[in-house]
Design goal:
The chain has about 200 residues and is mostly helical. The protein folds into two domains: about 55 residues, Arc Repressor Mutant, subunit A; about 140 residues, Tetracycline Repressor, domain 2 (Orthogonal Bundle). Helix 9 packs antiparallel against helix 10.
């Protein structure tokens, strides 16, 4: 995908978003070790100094990308979360998570599959905001356990992490195109999601 470059007159929020978009693209293309503010600036069409006005370091920029993705995921999960039946809610949230990952492959890779060796620790405040995504699953598992329709053993927190492991595995295999080519991808996804939710039925 070619760089998404703003005009050189772009400033403020527009320039900040263009920097994020180009950084995300470059992370996928060249990886964390080879990512530089100079490469981002060249792709955007601005000076490296302009980038530092928005992000104090490469790690700060990557943290902003991760935070952007986590907020987008939270919005998608909230929009898909129906009221009422915990089983229905769990199925809807699980589908929304997988759809988000498949629809946003570059963003998902930055959020969950980037493995830099020496990146600064993700800020605690940003982590708490990101944790809201898992909290949604934990909450529906807890309410389902109270209604005796979902199995949240040994605790809703552990069950939510186990569920996330299954959903992340599904998204990762689909994005990496590691599913047997004899299987219809969408039908496989539907079956995998149905089995995942069924595994948590009480």
């Amino acid at each position: 995908m070619p760089p998404i470059a703003p005009t050189r007159a772009a400033t403020g929020a527009d320039l900040r978003q263009s920097i994020l978009d180009e950084a995300r693209r470059l992370l996928i293309d060249v990886g964390y070790p080879k990512l530089s503010m100079r490469k981002i600036a060249d792709g955007v069409g601005c000076s490296a100094t302009s980038i530092y006005l928005h992000f104090e370091s490469k790690d700060t920029l990557i943290h902003a990308l991760i935070g952007e993705g986590m907020r987008s995921l939270f919005g998608a999960l909230q929009a898909a979360d129906p009221a009422g039946d915990p089983v229905g809610r769990l199925a809807a949230l699980s589908r929304a998570y997988v759809d988000f990952g498949l629809d946003n492959p570059e963003l998902y890779e930055v959020m969950f599959q980037l493995h830099p060796e020496r990146m600064a620790r993700f800020p605690a405040e940003d982590y708490r905001r990101a944790r809201r995504n898992l909290d949604l699953f934990e909450d529906v598992l807890a309410s389902g356990a109270e209604a005796s329709v979902l199995d949240a053993e040994p605790t809703p927190e552990v069950a939510a992490h186990a569920l996330w492991t299954s959903l992340h595995g599904l998204v990762s295999l689909r994005l990496a195109e590691r599913i047997d080519v004899r299987l219809a991808a969408d039908a496989f996804t539907d079956a995998a999601l149905a089995r995942t939710v069924r595994a948590f039925r009480a």
